[in-house]
């Protein structure tokens, strides 16, 4: 499992951008994790699935609501990673009104999740292999803090916890 001090794994996530601009085209766009994180402080949180109850009601909204506070704490970008395709992540971004506050990044084949060692096997529930619920503060591609949830929990990966760590 990835730990504090480790570099994020080499992987490509996919992002659906609603509007053209800043060199981004509409449609699924590859995001090279190493290049996208280089020289930045990233508040990254991951969760089992788009449109799932806890993720939609608590996890994403907390980060959207605290966007300004994260910026004030020196965070350049907020990333949400889920084992879903870019189209689903784009639809969820519209539903959650993330706008330019949270980058909704799809890990469609769970390559990033597997490389971090933070997968969750929900095959028995019809969801296959997903990402565990966690958050991390990433500085220039390296993990500065890591908060991994226990099974079925939502206690340490919330926006307030990661924001306190970003301020600290």
Structure description:
One of its GO terms (cellular component) is cytoplasm. Thiol-specific peroxidase that catalyzes the reduction of hydrogen peroxide and organic hydroperoxides to water and alcohols, respectively. Plays a role in cell protection against oxidative stress by detoxifying peroxides. By secondary structure, the protein is of the alpha+beta class. The protein is built from 6 helices and 9 strands, in the order ββαβααβαβαββββα. It has helices at 33-37, 53-65, 67-72, 86-96, 111-116, 159-167; strands at residues 12-17, 27-32, 41-47, 77-82, 102-106, 119-122, 128-131, 134-139, 142-148. The strands form 2 sheets. A 7-stranded mixed sheet has the order 2-1-5-4-3-8-9. Strands 6-7 form a two-stranded antiparallel ribbon. The protein is globular and about 40 Å long.
Describe the secondary-structure layout.
Blueprint: E1 12-17, E2 27-32, H1 33-37, E3 41-47, H2 53-65, H3 67-72, E4 77-82, H4 86-96, E5 102-106, H5 111-116, E6 119-122, E7 128-131, E8 134-139, E9 142-148, H6 159-167
Parallel strand pairs: 3-4, 4-5
Antiparallel strand pairs: 1-2, 1-5, 3-8, 6-7, 8-9
């Amino acid at each position: 499992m990835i730990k504090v001090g480790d570099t994020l794994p080499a992987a490509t996530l996919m992002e659906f951008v609603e509007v053209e601009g800043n060199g981004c085209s509409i449609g699924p766009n590859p995001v090279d994790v190493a290049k996208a994180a280089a020289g930045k402080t990233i508040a990254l949180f991951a969760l089992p699935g788009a449109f799932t109850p806890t993720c939609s009601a608590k996890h994403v909204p907390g980060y959207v609501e605290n966007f300004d506070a994260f910026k004030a704490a020196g965070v350049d970008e907020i990333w949400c990673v889920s084992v879903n395709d870019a189209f689903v992540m784009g639809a969820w971004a519209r539903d959650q009104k993330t706008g330019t506050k949270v980058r909704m990044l799809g890990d469609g084949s769970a390559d990033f999740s597997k490389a971090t060692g933070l997968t969750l096997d929900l095959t028995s529930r019809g969801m296959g292999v997903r990402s565990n619920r966690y958050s991390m503060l990433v500085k220039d591609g390296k993990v500065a803090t890591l908060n991994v949830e226990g099974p079925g929990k939502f206690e340490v990966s919330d926006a307030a916890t990661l924001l306190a760590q970003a301020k600290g």
